[in-house]
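Troubleshooting log. The previous structure file for this entry was overwritten by mistake, so regenerating from the original sequence record. Sequence copied from the archived sheet and checked twice against the printout by T.R.
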Amino acid sequence: MFQSRVKISTSHKLYSGKNKPKNIIVKFISHKKKTALYKKRIELTNVKITQSFPHSTTATALASERLYINQNFTSFRKDLMKEANQMKKDGLLVSVWSMDGKIYVKTSPDGTPKRIRSQEDLDNV
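Regenerated output below.
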């Protein structure tokens, strides 16, 4: 799926509760490679786990699950992102995304992206 090799320094599973699939947190060797992979995550929109890992028993058990690549936010930024995504669902924002731990929103398709640093920034959009 992805053409270039991604160099990973460390990875491990995060506990997510009983009978739930575990998230995997990854630390990349190169910030440039991490950014390139993160930008390509949109290509995973309709990819199922079984497509990428056809012989895995876990993939078979989770056949309907999609793959996701997300940033590991602090709880403060996670809450801001959740609020921004809710505003998007409510039709108040056109798009919401993050890059390098920073949250951005757009209020119109042709609008300038606005960086969100606090709840106040989100309230003033």
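The mean pLDDT is 81. Archived copy saved in two places this time.
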